[in-house]
Design brief:
By secondary structure, this protein is α+β, with helices and mostly antiparallel strands. The chain has one helix at residues 2-18, and strands at residues 24-27, 34-39, 45-49, 63-67. A 4-stranded antiparallel sheet has the order 1-2-3-4, with no helix packed on it. The chain starts with a helix and ends in a 16-residue tail after the last strand.
Length: 83
Protein backbone atom coordinates (compact mmCIF):
# COMPACT_ATOMS: atom_id res chain seq x y z
CA UNK A 1 0.00 0.00 0.00
CA UNK A 2 2.97 2.31 0.41
CA UNK A 3 3.35 2.45 -3.37
CA UNK A 4 -0.25 3.71 -3.72
CA UNK A 5 0.45 6.53 -1.29
CA UNK A 6 3.65 7.44 -3.10
CA UNK A 7 1.88 7.31 -6.48
CA UNK A 8 -0.85 9.60 -5.18
CA UNK A 9 1.75 12.08 -3.96
CA UNK A 10 3.63 11.88 -7.22
CA UNK A 11 0.48 12.53 -9.25
CA UNK A 12 -0.27 15.57 -7.11
CA UNK A 13 3.22 16.93 -7.64
CA UNK A 14 2.99 16.29 -11.39
CA UNK A 15 -0.17 18.39 -11.48
CA UNK A 16 1.61 21.21 -9.69
CA UNK A 17 4.66 20.90 -11.91
CA UNK A 18 2.49 21.08 -15.02
CA UNK A 19 1.26 24.47 -13.80
CA UNK A 20 4.86 25.58 -13.34
CA UNK A 21 5.00 27.24 -16.74
CA UNK A 22 2.38 29.69 -15.42
CA UNK A 23 3.89 30.01 -11.97
CA UNK A 24 6.35 32.38 -10.36
CA UNK A 25 8.41 32.62 -7.22
CA UNK A 26 6.70 34.32 -4.26
CA UNK A 27 8.63 35.45 -1.17
CA UNK A 28 6.57 35.56 2.02
CA UNK A 29 8.01 38.51 3.94
CA UNK A 30 6.48 37.36 7.26
CA UNK A 31 8.08 33.90 7.22
CA UNK A 32 11.00 34.32 4.83
CA UNK A 33 9.80 31.25 2.92
CA UNK A 34 9.99 31.25 -0.88
CA UNK A 35 7.03 29.57 -2.55
CA UNK A 36 6.33 28.59 -6.14
CA UNK A 37 2.99 30.32 -6.80
CA UNK A 38 0.25 29.78 -9.38
CA UNK A 39 -2.79 32.09 -9.58
CA UNK A 40 -5.84 30.88 -11.48
CA UNK A 41 -8.26 32.95 -13.55
CA UNK A 42 -10.50 33.79 -10.56
CA UNK A 43 -7.64 35.08 -8.43
CA UNK A 44 -6.98 32.09 -6.15
CA UNK A 45 -3.25 31.64 -5.53
CA UNK A 46 -1.83 28.18 -4.79
CA UNK A 47 1.65 28.32 -3.30
CA UNK A 48 3.97 25.39 -2.65
CA UNK A 49 7.28 25.28 -0.79
CA UNK A 50 9.59 22.27 -0.66
CA UNK A 51 12.93 21.96 1.13
CA UNK A 52 15.99 22.48 -1.05
CA UNK A 53 17.20 18.95 -0.26
CA UNK A 54 13.86 17.18 -0.92
CA UNK A 55 14.24 13.78 -2.55
CA UNK A 56 12.23 10.62 -3.11
CA UNK A 57 14.64 8.75 -0.82
CA UNK A 58 13.50 10.40 2.42
CA UNK A 59 10.48 12.07 3.96
CA UNK A 60 10.21 15.85 3.92
CA UNK A 61 7.71 18.55 4.83
CA UNK A 62 5.67 20.44 2.26
CA UNK A 63 4.05 23.81 2.86
CA UNK A 64 0.91 24.61 0.85
CA UNK A 65 -0.69 28.04 0.98
CA UNK A 66 -4.07 28.83 -0.58
CA UNK A 67 -4.92 32.53 -0.86
CA UNK A 68 -8.37 33.53 -2.13
CA UNK A 69 -9.97 36.93 -2.70
CA UNK A 70 -12.17 37.99 0.25
CA UNK A 71 -15.13 38.26 -2.15
CA UNK A 72 -15.07 34.47 -2.56
CA UNK A 73 -15.86 33.97 1.10
CA UNK A 74 -13.74 30.83 1.31
CA UNK A 75 -11.00 29.04 -0.57
CA UNK A 76 -9.68 25.55 0.07
CA UNK A 77 -7.59 22.67 -1.19
CA UNK A 78 -8.44 19.04 -0.62
CA UNK A 79 -5.77 16.45 0.03
CA UNK A 80 -6.66 12.79 -0.13
CA UNK A 81 -5.03 9.40 0.08
CA UNK A 82 -5.51 6.72 -2.55
CA UNK A 83 -6.37 3.34 -1.06
Amino acid sequence: MKWASRLSGLLGLITLVSAQSDSAAFDDVETGITFQSFTNDVGVAYRLALPADASADKAYDVILQVVAPIEMGMGSAGLGVAR
